[in-house]
Amino acid sequence: MKQFINDIKGDRTIWAITALLAIFSFLPVYSAASNLAYSYGGGNTFGFVVKHFMHLFLGFVIIYAIHKLPYRYFKGLSIIMLPVVALLLLYTMFQIDSSDSLTNTKRWISLPFVGFSFQPSTLASVVLMVYVARYLSKIQDKTITFKESLFPLWLPVFGIIGLIFPANFSTAAIMMLMVFVLAFIGGYPFKYLAIIGGTAIVLMTLFILTFKAFPDLMPNRVDTWMSRIERFRGDTNDADNYQIEKAKIAIATGQIQGLGPGKSRQKNFLPQSSSDFIFAIIIEEYGLIGGMMLVFLYLWFLFRVVIVAYKSQTVFGSLLAIGIGMPIVFQAFINMAVAVELLPVTGQTLPLISSGGTSIWMTCMAIGILISVSADYGPGEEVGTNEESNNPLDVLSEAM
Q1: E-assigned strands of the chain?
Q2: Coil/strand/helix, residue 295
């Protein structure tokens, strides 16, 4: 065990924050899972906790395995994985859901033989941010024109996000915003970003108008996210409003100190109490104090992301740390904002806290990459990225 701990590299604070979030998650997940247990598991909550433990255990295996890789390898891997992700998204978009309409756009792929589902959009977000960081690092010393960057940068960005957008508006919007923020930090000209932003708004408007004119094209998921926006504006009153109302009751009940671990009442009425609305359950059981401690942990994580980016000895390392680390914190605050009705329902989970396999694993993959960046600097150490390498991933990245 001592040898294993000594073998861990990178920012120990990030390791500690990740572990604290994961350990704390068992309390609200165990409590909130009681609703699912009585609905689907015969009243046994232990199985849900074991499942959550296995998801987190595999997540930490992913962190450990990835943080051992030199982060420069991810340049080449992003180029390889981008078309793979595009194919997965295409398959997800056009697969037939036997339980619903033939035109239903789904977000999940059911993997045969292993018994679980996988959400390709979460993998796409990690791969795309690495790819954008790679491109921006390559143009740092060049005078780039809009025409030159259109094909290698924005075509893949719009392609990947366009495949996610119809079925998962919130994820697509977060990805686009994060790409814009990373491009701005990476020195991409603001006037070009304004053009791209305007183009994105026009394309989204055309899509919505097309959907309104031909509602049978993509009836299910598009209906879902469009109606959620209408509900947030107060135009309708149905299931999502019910969830928000229950979440607000849970938060109001928690007050300062909370009702205590496992004593939530609204978990019995809130359908997504262990995933999308777990923050409301946390406030109800641990009060404002528990909620603020959770906010502090995510802010501390963001602070360490900035430190890693600042200390990185390469432009790619700095951009990669920001591009991989910032979306985790941004997603966390979106989840919290939904629970207090500052945003419409998005379906975004609370990173490392909410139950769910794909979201946990992809968050852990991003953390592993972040720790890999942090492992490549230190007092008196030579930076590995400045050394010559014959690794094919390095060669591929430099060639493209």
Answers
A1: 109-111, 116-118
A2: helix
Are the C-beta atoms of residues 32 and 52 closer than 8 Å to each other?
no
Beta bridge partners of 116: 111
Amino acid in position 349: T
Cβ-Cβ contacts under 8 Å for 20 (sequence gap 6 or more): 297
What span, in angstroms and rounded, lies between the C-alpha atoms of 65 and 79? Answer: 20
123: left (phi over 0), alpha (psi -120 to 50) or beta: alpha
State both tokens at 334: 């979106």
Cβ neighbours around 363 below 10 Å, total: 26
Closest CA to 170 of 3, 349, 1: 349
**Integer CA distances (angstroms), 392 to 177, 267, 303, 376, in order:** 32, 51, 34, 20
What is the rounded distance in angstroms from the CA atom of residue 305 to the CA atom of residue 197? 26
pLDDT, tens only, 20-73: 999 999 988 888 877 666 655 555 677 778 888 999 999 999 999 999 999 999
CB atoms closer than 10 angstroms to residue 211: 17
Residue with the larger pLDDT of the pair 40 and 256: 256
What is the 8-class DSSP label of residue 117? E
For residue range 192-239, list pLDDT tens digits in order. 999 999 999 998 888 877 777 766 665 555 666 566 666 666 655 555
